[in-house]
Amino acid sequence: MRRAVDAVPGARDRLAHRIPASPGSPNVVGEAPAVAVVGGGIAGLAAATALAERGVRVTLFERDDMLGGRLSGWSTTLKDGSAVTMSRGFHAFFRQYYNLRALLRRTDPQHTRLTRLPDYPLWHADGLKDSFRHVPRTPPWSAMGFALTSPTFRLRDFPRMNAAAALPLMDVHVPDVYDRLDKTSAYDLLASIRFPEAAHHLAFEVFSRSFFADPRILSAAEMALMFHIYFLGSAEGLLFDVPNDPFPTALWNPLGAYLERLGVDVRCSTPVEHISPDSDGFRISTGGLDRRFDACVLALDTDGLRAVAGNSPAIADASWRQRVARLRTAPPFLVSRLWLDRPVRSDRPGFLGTSGYGGLDNVSVLERWEQEAVQWSRRTGGSVVELHAYAVDEGADQAAEQQRLIRQLRTVYPETRSAQIIDERHEWRSDCPLFPVGGYTDRPTVRTSHPRLMVAGDLVRTGLPVALMERAATSGILAANALLEQWKTEGHTLFTVPVRGRNPVLRRLAEAHRRRHP
Question: 3-class secondary structure for 2-33?
């Protein structure tokens, strides 16, 4: 069964970059090859979808009992008897996520399960506040508009800034950005540009902490790529959508059912720990299944990929396994969800980025968009509030950190000081990839030394300007396309934000700077 639903560029950005599908038969010819996709997160779901739509026989293995990976959700019962869904926290679905949104379009063609939040406000404890609501979407007007309207930039700040140091941000392309900036930290890059300290915290630390990492250990190349994707290279803007129901209901249950209709054998609660080469394919023995596959896609998080590579010494060459073994996970993060007995103020935004409030990085008010929270709020008169702390110290006292976040919430939203917590859930995780200074060359590419073994996920080097969830979706489709090409079958078209700086004048200035400072 084939669906002709490929990624399409956003309506606003005429410069979105198209990666055409490889030519071939509309569906696989002859006996359909069998592919094992290991991992049921975004990357694995994207690979399984792209393969199954071309007639490949796919078995999807997921170690947990639900799909979605780091965007999964699970049922829990509150002290008041309410059945609710818990997750690992807020995720923004930006308009730049062309390939992820195309994947979701398989079951929701009009994106009716996504709701746009009207603003992306940022608050600093010193009282400074920023907003992206009225900032122009198209660079360079977006950057100029932000600087002119933001209280974090003052007229006396502009002469102090090092414009030459900022030029690499004006023409970001892959892999050059890694060649130039991967050995520099995000913190050092910002320091060299001499951004105002308040702007550093409000506008830029937000980007680095999206990777669950302190700017001092995060590669400046990864931060520069983020600037390009979300602010300096794309005309899609910084506003975003969120699912209007919990992740399983809005996203993964419909996509899982779609895969099963395509004939995909979805096997949750089935971890894969060891893979053996077999002729020109692989053999997997797990969960009552012992079967040969013609190809394999490893769509795993960092720890999962390291474990499989370490337990399967024959699947790829020693150099690949050594690089995988050196991969690291980002510091722990905390998601605290509170069910309060009274509402927060009606003017509080659905999502608020914060800085200077101890470990608190953002606050979400879920009844602003999620129907499950809306129903609970209407029934009880309370609010469902979620707090995030990224890059927590590994030696932190977890109970103390949880209470510290709650105290910070009461500082940010004083009306919560009188609220009673009906129930609370605290999720500690440490499984996001770390992109450290100098770590780019260790990250795997989609292809490996074995022609039938592919890797997908947000840790993968794609050679394209994508990051976070969009990197996961894009790499999954790239992995599927690489296999389909071997079987002379048509691949899937992809789109990204522009692959170079979009302003010719700034691009020429950046090129001249590169020649002077190779």
Answer: CCCCCCCCCCCCCCCEEECCCCCECCCCCCCC
pLDDT, position 4 = 38
Contact 476, 494 (CB under 8 A): no
Flag the least confident range among 162-171, 214-223, 454-463: 162-171
Q: How much helix, strand and coil, in percent to the nearest 5, is found in the chain?
A: 35, 20, 40
CB 36 within 8 A of CB 294: no
> CA quadruple 30, 485, 283, 262: dihedral positive or negative?
negative
Q: How many Cβ atoms sit within 10 Å of the Cβ of residue 210?
A: 21
Name, of 13-22, 216-225, 488-497, the range with top average pLDDT.
488-497
Cis peptide before 140 (omega within 30 of 0): yes
CB burial of residue 37 (10 Å; 0-12, 13-18, 19+):
buried
Whole-prediction pTM: 0.94
Residue with tokens 């199954």: 52
Reported as type and span, the H/E element at residue 514 is helix 504-516
Nearest to 223 by CA among 180, 193, 185, 179: 185
In angstroms, the CA 304 to CA 310 distance is 10
* Structure tokens belonging to residue 316: 């790829």
Q: Please tell me whether residue 314 adopts helix, strand or coil conformation.
A: coil
Decide if 213 contacts 331 (C-beta within 8 A).
Answer: yes
Question: How confident is the model over 489-494, as a mean pLDDT?
Answer: 97
Residues 6+ apart with CB under 8 A from 508: none
| Cα separation, 234 vs 459, whole angstroms | 22
Query: Is residue 221 classed as helix, strand or coil in its secondary structure?
Result: helix
Instruction: Give how far Cα 290 sits from Cα of 31, 36, 286, 466, Å.
Output: 20, 12, 7, 36
Q: Which residue has the higher pLDDT, 281 or 516?
A: 281
> First and final CA of the chain: distance in angstroms?
51
Q: Which residue has the tokens 């969120």?
A: 242
Bridge partners (DSSP) of residue 286 are: 289
Is 320:461 a contact under the CB 8 Å cutoff?
A: no
At residue 236, what are phi and psi to the nearest 5 degrees?
-85, -15
Residue type, 186: A
Cβ-defined contacts of 406-412 (< 8 Å, 24+): 406/336, 406/338, 407/358, 408/354, 408/357, 408/358, 408/359, 408/360, 409/338, 409/360, 409/363, 409/385, 411/125, 411/357, 412/123, 412/352, 412/354, 412/357, 412/360, 412/363
The three state secondary structure string of 127-178 is: CCEECCCCCCCCCCHHHHHHHHHCCCCCHHHHHHCCHHHHHHHHCCCCCHHH
